[in-house]
Design a protein that fits this description.
Shape: elongated
Distance between the termini: 127 Å
Largest sheet: 2 strands, antiparallel
Structural class: mainly alpha
Oligomer: single chain
Strand order of the largest sheet: 1-2
Helix content: 55-70%
Order of helices and strands: HHHHHHHHHHHHHHEEHHHHHHHH
Radius of gyration: 32 Å
């Protein structure tokens, strides 16, 4: 039996009878059956679907319906979980966020938030698999990556509503309540780790700018106006380690003990960075008084910190904040506390320059010089400087006394004494130079103080 063939040259009219359907806004995809169309799109990268969704309103609506189907966007993740393919899992959540941002471009904030809620509901089973087979922190990281891409260009009002939605869905406040309402810190160590990881991975670490990070942090802190210092320590305080490996548990006691001025700054780095952001951000609307009050509360959380760690945090906050904090001590007539903190601040400052160099103490001398300017008279400034040197002598003497104690590493003590004496010589050299050559030398008066005026008496 011969095959039927159409000779176009002999039958030109036959070609005209072929029905050619006009293309719709869906393009050639509309010519395929629904099942085949979905199968084809399921093989496309999510980034390509996001591009395709931007071609027409109808296409965007069609891909939106597909994206809401958890099988399309989430299904590959389940196989990657078993194989521990972390990079692919994270990359998929980034692509999902980009896809959702593309398909909701014309939607209002309410519709976008509804999209987040639906997706998180569809993700629930996969989320639990990630928690069980990998870790809870990794699951938070993935959700944070999705949100980071989805809400990257949202305004402040939309971000606030996003925070409120996540707070409601995750019952965040209830979880934070459990660790903050208990007077004894460290009672629920696992819950503390959970809260820290959740807030950091979902919000703080994924912020696209310091301003957005300060917004997230202000929203978290506003929930607990009376316990902000404890909450900040919970989020950024040092962590416990076991055999050199971080456990993720909060170390509430580390900063209450002194480990020597050569202790690494890593224990305080994150905390210092976020405190600097809070002090400089306009979102917190803090005055000098509220900043100083917060610093004092923080350095008493959970117990008063070692003065050495106070000094380290001050140094990491910079010149301006250090001056304000020291001036607050002077105005509160806490000259002894001022002197001892200043001593430790000098040792910390010296670590950042070559040993024995006068320049190593230049930052410290400028801080002290600017701090005592707030005092009303040369005699008061002279008295403060003498108290500083007295505190220096007392600390060196205390170190010398420790040499007689058993079970003490005497080599470390000798090093501390040697460094303290070298720093003292550097400070003395700088102060003498200022006294004779600096136009502002009236900040330092070492001669016999003038008689007190009636008001000073």
């Amino acid at each position: 039996m011969k095959r039927c063939q159409i000779d176009i040259r002999r039958n030109p009219k036959r070609l005209c009878k072929l029905e050619i359907k006009p293309l719709t806004p869906m393009g050639m995809i509309s010519t395929f059956p629904e099942e085949i169309c979905q199968q084809l799109l399921s093989y496309m990268p999510l980034s390509s679907l996001a591009t395709l969704a931007s071609t027409s309103k109808e296409m965007c609506s069609y891909i939106t319906d597909l994206a809401m189907d958890s099988q399309l966007v989430i299904r590959p993740i389940n196989s990657w979980i078993k194989l521990k393919q972390f990079a692919k899992i994270k990359g998929r959540f980034v692509e999902i966020g980009m896809l959702f941002r593309a398909i909701t471009t014309l939607s209002d904030t309410t519709q976008k938030l509804s999209t987040i809620e639906i997706f998180l509901y569809e993700l629930e089973e996969t989320y639990h698999k990630i928690c069980e087979d990998i870790s809870l922190g990794f699951a938070y990281d993935c959700i944070g990556l999705f949100l980071y891409k989805f809400i990257a260009d949202w305004d402040d009002e939309a971000l606030v509503r996003t925070f409120e939605l996540i707070n409601k869905l995750s019952r965040l406040k209830e979880r934070v309540d459990k660790v903050l309402v208990i007077p004894k810190h460290g009672t629920f160590k696992n819950f503390e780790r959970d809260v820290r990881q959740f807030i950091q991975e979902i919000f703080l670490k994924k912020a696209v700018s310091p301003d957005q990070r300060s917004l997230w942090l202000s929203l978290v802190m506003e929930m607990y106006p009376e316990q902000q210092s404890r909450l900040l320590y919970l989020l950024y305080g040092p962590l416990l380690s076991n055999n050199g490996k971080c456990t993720g548990m909060i170390d509430w006691d580390m900063l209450t003990h002194c480990y020597g001025h050569t202790c690494p700054y890593s224990n305080l780095q994150e905390l210092a960075n976020i405190v600097s952001l809070m002090f400089s951000s306009k979102r917190f609307r803090w005055t000098d008084h509220t900043m100083i009050e917060f610093f004092n509360k923080l350095t008493r959380t959970p117990e008063p910190w070692c003065l050495e760690n106070n000094a380290k945090l001050m140094y990491m906050l910079g010149h301006t904040m250090s001056v304000k904090l020291l001036q607050a001590k002077l105005l509160s007539e806490k000259s002894a506390e001022f002197s001892h903190i200043a001593y430790h601040l000098a040792q910390v400052s010296a670590q950042n320059s070559p040993e024995g160099s006068p320049e190593s103490m230049m930052w410290f001398v400028r801080v002290i010089s600017d701090s005592i300017k707030i005092l009303p008279s040369p005699s008061r400034r002279s008295y403060t400087i003498r108290e500083l040197f007295k505190a220096w002598k007392d600390n060196v003497t205390a170190l010398a006394d420790e040499l007689d104690e058993p079970l003490i590493d005497q080599e470390d003590i000798r090093d501390d004494i040697r460094v303290a004496v070298v720093n003292l010589a550097s400070v003395s050299e700088l102060l003498m130079d200022r006294m004779f050559n600096d136009k502002d030398s009236n900040c330092f008066v070492f001669t016999q103080p003038p008689p007190l005026t009636q008001n000073e008496e």
